[in-house]
Specification:
CATH class: Alpha Beta
Number of strands: 7
Structural class: alpha/beta
CATH architecture: 3-Layer(aba) Sandwich
Largest sheet: 7 strands, parallel
Distance between the termini: 27 Å
CATH topology: Rossmann fold
CATH superfamily: NAD(P)-binding Rossmann-like Domain
Strand content: 5-15%
Shape: globular
Radius of gyration: 17 Å
Number of domains: 1
């Protein structure tokens, strides 16, 4: 069954939008009628993603942004508002993985890097989105956490710490803005068929046996399945839903 939304006249912002879940969500927003600002650090991939959406009849633009640099995030939000006339929805998706390693052997540089992107990047994005949405009195923000924000897994302590942080940010901001017309939620994907997961499989961090052991559905998720959850949380259909960290995980957290 296909569910459709009408986001005509709305403006959406997606970070980490050049591939994977971010690109699938940007496509879905555009298909539903929204104008979409795509952001990524990879200029070439970003240009290709924007071109694909526009050639498919959507309305999209791109902005290169490193979410670890708050001034770049502020410029991204400002450019979105200037170019499209507002900001109604955001999916803060930019994130990375780090090599699997025993917690006693993990390097501080890896901890700092994964938290700078996955946690501080979401914090900066949400901060500047909220600044605009607070003044207009409405908006919906969806942060990309992970099942790694709900459970633990050996050899990925820093990654899981960053995603637990995203869940905490989401809950706190949702409570703060609950009566101000702004809803803040998160999605918590399991292993999704994205370039990052493909890289993890290539390096042996993830195997088919591990995926089948974690996800009762016994397959990788699809980017469009995460996008469907993001669009629902962004829509008026979820008007009474806030502060939720929604598993999109093939049953992984049901165990």
């Amino acid at each position: 069954m296909s569910v459709s939304y009408d986001f005509s006249g709305k403006v959406a912002l997606v970070t980490g939008a050049a591939s994977g879940m971010g690109f699938s969500t940007a496509q879905a927003y555009a298909k539903a009628g929204a104008s979409v600002m795509l952001s990524d650090v990879n200029q070439q991939a970003l240009d290709a993603a924007v071109t694909e959406i526009n050639q498919s009849g959507g309305k999209a633009a791109g902005f290169v942004c490193d979410v670890t640099k708050e001034e770049q995030v502020a410029a991204l939000v400002a450019q979105t508002v200037e170019q499209f006339g507002g900001l109604d929805m955001a999916f803060n998706n930019a994130g990375i993985q780090v090599p699997a390693i025993d917690a006693a052997d993990e390097q501080a540089e890896d901890f700092d890097r994964v938290n700078a992107i996955n946690l501080r990047g979401v914090w900066a994005s949400m901060k500047h989105e909220l600044k605009y949405m607070r003044d207009q009195g409405h908006g919906s923000i969806v942060n990309c956490a992970s099942i790694g924000g709900l459970v633990g897994l050996g050899k990925l302590a820093s990654y899981h710490a960053s995603k637990h942080g995203v869940v905490g940010l989401t809950k706190s901001a949702a409570l703060e803005y609950a009566t101000r017309g702004i809803r803040v939620n998160a999605v918590c994907p399991a292993a999704i068929d994205t370039p990052m997961v493909a890289d993890m499989k290539e390096k042996g961090v993830l195997t088919d046996d591990i995926i089948e052991g974690i996800q009762p559905i016994s397959r990788l998720g699809k980017g469009e399945e995460v996008a469907a959850a993001v669009l629902w949380l962004s829509s008026d259909a979820a008007s009474f839903v806030l502060g939720v960290s929604l598993p999109v995980d093939g049953g992984a957290t049901a165990r």
